């Protein structure tokens, strides 16, 4: 039994069956197969070029690996738990196929630097997919903004009506967050795109390998600079999970708003039927399941970040078996983020706005009170006094059940004789919104400038 193992030499007794299962990672790390083979092919070719093995042997190994790849993709290979992980499953197959020469592949290499390269290749690919999804979501948010430039909604602080804003401005706020997420992701991709192969088990290798050549073959920007660090670094996975945590936090905020806005009480938007479900008991229900689930999935992504940080905490250099536990949190994060982004991009693009309801809500809650205060300031009143004047005006409105734009000029002048009949030009929703013209403000012209900038 022990002889079946690629590392069986030192052992006299077979591994306990349950220990075998317990220590194996093949159930989950098989998703790395393509990257494992890609890394092995580059390594084998380098071994041949450097005459560490014969060029013909390298060619045999590469051909064997190609066949294995084809067979895995055709579902013809059944992975074995006894072979522990994807690296040994592939290598054992290779030896089975091409004979003893297959055993030369692992020259100058260890599973420790092999797994480090595999995860990087895999994550790099997934990041490129995710960057595409992020751009798609950005485009959907921009589309919402462009198509609804006339729509005014209440802007909130403390979830209390604060000042009217353009719905487009609100959508573009989320675009900013997603754009920052994208830049964070690109940034961490650059940082980890260096090749750890060549670190060996921990100290480097005695063979005259050419790391730079392999790095070039595999599309890395360079090579890692310290063998101990190369095999024990999982910062990149943690950074990715941190990126994902922030992204999901953003998506959960947007989710929360979409859920509120879909309720009968707000009734600001209508999500397409394709993204909602009904209730098995209440026939009137149309539930915003997708944003609810994305909000919920934020929890597992945070959890994965904490898992990884805790996993790596206090680990002595260099590789420790603990690190095999890095994969499931990372994989789950990747799957969750991809699913959430994909579904959000489509859902946002198809979302329908109920402009009238937003407008009615924007007019409630004295949302133009600040505009009256600013008006008084422009007539010479210090802002603190203006705040006081309008505070009293609002109290009067509350007591009499009136709204600011409904007050007569005499009523306004009860509170300040600086107010003249041009006040009515300032207290409409449009006037309030459009007065905020400076870069980053909600005025239509400012938002249009922003949209034009994004188009470039
Ligand atoms: N399956 C292992 C992992 O994912 C590969 C590296 C194993 N190295 C070792 N020395 N046991 O971490």
Please name the defining characteristics of this protein.
single chain, 456 residues, Fumarase C, Chain B, domain 1, Fumarase C, Chain A, domain 2, Ribonucleotide Reductase Protein R1, domain 1, 3 domains, two-stranded antiparallel sheet, two-stranded parallel sheet, 18 helices, 6 strands, 5% strand, elongated, binds arginine
Q: Explain this structure to me?
A:
Helix 6 packs parallel to helix 12 and helix 10 packs parallel to helix 12. The protein has helices at residues 17-23, 26-29, 33-49, 55-73, 86-98, 111-147, 167-192, 211-217, 227-232, 235-262, 289-312, 327-349, 355-363, 369-378, 383-400, 409-415, 429-434, 444-455, and strands at 152-157, 160-166, 194-195, 222-223, 269-270, 352-353. By secondary structure, it is mostly helical. It is elongated. It is built from 18 helices and six strands. Arginine binds next to helix 6.
- The fold-level CATH name of the largest domain is Fumarase C, Chain A, domain 2
Mean pLDDT reading: 96
Tertiary shape: elongated
CATH architecture of the largest domain: Up-down Bundle
In terms of structural class, how would the helical and strand content be classed?
Answer: mainly alpha
Number of beta strands? 6
